[in-house]
């Protein structure tokens, strides 16, 4: 049994995935006239461009005509179209489209890896610690099953603390418990209460919380 801790421990931040951050000077080959808004949107969607997020929340946009850097928050681009006309160029539009489509992280997000399956997932930019993809995350209030005991639990919180950093009330890390040996020490700890302990007149907050490595719990029905 793994009791939740009283002493919070901070988890080490995840390293950034390696990314190049090269840029080339703006090319003068771009042609765009003011007022061609629809045309720009069409080209932004249709033209061959590669968008990559940088570590400083900006984006590199590679095109046949050159490579530019877009700051979506500030609405700026290093291309001549933007520099000369101050317009919302096709590069800014393209970055916005890819963010909307979920192809690249938003400026307040970065690329992280799911601690359970390794899948790429967008996480809050400043988030440290272990993270889960949509497939392996739990919503607070979700019912889950403990793989070890088969018992049903109600998820209270998915922490960003790793199982080998999160300390229980007994002063041990979640990863140190023998029943957690089969689960990743790098996984985030999920706090949950036993479903059986939630009774009429007794809220989830009143129940004892326990911490589990994320993959020890399964969503009900999986
Ligand atoms: Zn541009
Ligand atoms: Zn995953």
UniProtKB/TrEMBL annotation:
Residues 18-35 have a biased composition (Low complexity). GO terms for molecular function: zinc ion binding. Keywords: Metal-binding, Zinc, Zinc-finger. It comes from the Archaea. Residues 1-49 are annotated as: Disordered. Coiled coil: none annotated. PROSITE patterns: ZF_SWIM (PS50966). It holds the Pfam family SWIM. Residues 68-100 form the SWIM-type domain. Transmembrane segments: none annotated. This is Zinc finger SWIM domain protein.
